[in-house]
Amino acid sequence: MTAPPLSLGADALARLMPLYLHVALSGQIVGAGPTLTKMIPDGGPVGRPLLEVFTLQRPRGITGAADLARIDGARLRLSLRAPPNTAFKGLAVPLALAGGWLVNLSFGIGLADAVRAHHLTDGDFAATDLTVEMLYLIEAKSAVLEELRRLNLRLQNAKVTAEEEALTDSLTGLRNRRGLERALEGLSGLATPFGLMQIDLDFFKRVNDTLGHAAGDAVLARVGAILRTETRGGDTVARIGGDEFVVLMPGMHDADRLEEVAQRILSRLEEPQSHDGAVCQISASIGTLVAPAGADPTPLLEDADRALYAAKRAGRSRVVRVPAAG
Q: Which UniProt keywords apply (predicted)?
């Protein structure tokens, strides 16, 4: 028994296939689904030639109405000529009664881009279309990926913060001994000279003993601020003990210039500091040296330390420099 021919009204066709085209034998678009009409500016595609609205990539070589017979049953690849040049895939079947072709279109892998570009919603798709579910999956995946990106960023920031804290003296904000070792490793083998300064505070114990540890901490914090102010941005300033400090100055090749910086630091440190109405008076003994290019900086700390204790033996509150030991 032969089934009778089916007849669908425009409303039913629009509900089943909101991206359909009815193309006449002349190549004119005589009907279109509501979603497709929404996507095409200036009144939609109806009444316009198919090849004026769309570019056909497949089948190839279709340049006019005379070639359209080749779309019978063909899988189509086409895109809108107007920006954003949305791409479609489709299937064309001949219409025995009405004549021409019924073309049903879909977005394929360009679905998400098309939805964003044309502001489509679930109401623009057939109720049985899995597109809506795919959109939810895409949105869920995007949300998960964005949350993972934020989590990775937080973890990376936490890692950077933890590494920075591990290299920093909490009281002064200077590098600690570990931070100094990291800086020394960076200098090792570089083909550039560098200045090295070892500093030990004089009379600091007296401040702690007479005024208390809070006063001592205030003095150390001020020392850190002075050392940062009197050195360059690329220098490393470290607190390596209770009242011991080291300054590394990459590229410093002039011993006289290095001594000038040390003398300026010494003068700043000797300025009286007030804490809770009491005067905190300290000074410093400083040993300096300029290391030659390519020198291993670690043993040179002993040279600078030797200069420092020479300053203490000479009466404190002074700068002494010695040549690097090899």
A: Coiled coil
